[in-house]
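User: Hi! I have a protein structure encoded as tokens and I'd like to know what sequence might fold into it. I'm fairly new to this, so please keep things simple.
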């Protein structure tokens, strides 16, 4: 049952015909993990907290640096040197004190993810690290937890979702093979325009809310590419190729 206060707090989304009270209750009972509390994780987590996601698991091992403030909108200048996960939890708790927020000051290793992914209904990959992205993909696939992944470099962003609750779902590795040569190119080395992270991170939270509410996604098995220079979104349907992990599901240890 939704309380009177929550009915007011969430009134603008409850009144939507696509949402209603039933969807709000789904959001309230949902547990979502946000891995990476940088330029994507900040707007994504803000919208999820505001929307009334019942439980947010916030994962980031970094402390805030001066150069983060150009794009990481949860933080203020007085938070420099403080752990992002703790500051984010505090800021989001101020936005919405009625949800549970669990901060983890932790770099998400594959072992850690394997232990924790089963405690959530959805994972948002907001990292800027290809290796962690592949780990998140493997763990979510094995645990049948849906994942929404995003990245932005320069003026260009990407968004893609996989619902591993469905049998036969493709995965990130099907389209972006996990190779040794893969460059770990992130915004520390290549630069990034702040609002593009805001747009793509917000789109990530939008897809999360839709998935939890049972609405169709625009990024399911589909790579959405955002170009900040022209404001174009392009959709690339992913082909039929499957990685070894998806081609031989029996090979995955359960
Ligand atoms: Zn795959």
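Assistant: Happy to help. Inverse folding works backwards from shape to sequence: for each of the 254 positions I chose a residue that suits the local structure. Here it is:
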């Amino acid at each position: 049952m939704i309380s009177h206060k929550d009915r007011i707090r969430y009134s603008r989304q409850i009144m939507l015909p696509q949402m209603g009270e039933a969807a709000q209750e789904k959001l309230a009972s949902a547990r979502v993990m946000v891995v990476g509390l940088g330029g994507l994780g900040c707007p994504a987590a803000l919208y999820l907290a505001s929307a009334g996601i019942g439980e947010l698991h916030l994962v980031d091992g970094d402390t805030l640096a001066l150069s983060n403030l150009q794009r990481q909108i949860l933080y203020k200048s007085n938070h420099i040197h403080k752990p992002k996960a703790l500051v984010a939890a505090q800021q989001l708790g101020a936005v919405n004190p009625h949800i549970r927020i669990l901060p983890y000051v932790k770099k998400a290793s594959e072992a850690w993810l394997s232990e924790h992914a089963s405690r959530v209904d959805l994972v948002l990959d907001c990292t800027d690290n290809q290796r962690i992205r592949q780990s998140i993909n493997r763990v979510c696939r094995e645990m049948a937890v849906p994942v929404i992944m995003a990245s932005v470099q320069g003026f260009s962003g990407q968004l893609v979702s996989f619902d591993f609750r469905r049998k036969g779902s493709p995965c990130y590795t099907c389209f972006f093979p996990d190779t040794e040569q893969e460059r770990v190119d992130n915004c520390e080395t290549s630069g990034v325009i702040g609002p593009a992270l805001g747009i793509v991170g917000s789109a990530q939270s939008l897809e999360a809310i839709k998935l939890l509410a049972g609405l169709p996604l625009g990024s399911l098995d589909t790579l959405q590419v955002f170009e900040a220079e022209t404001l174009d979104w392009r959709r690339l349907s992913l082909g039929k190729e499957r990685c070894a992990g998806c081609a031989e599901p029996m090979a995955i240890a359960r």
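A useful reference point when you look it over: The chain is about 35% helix and 20% strand. Feel free to ask if any position seems puzzling.
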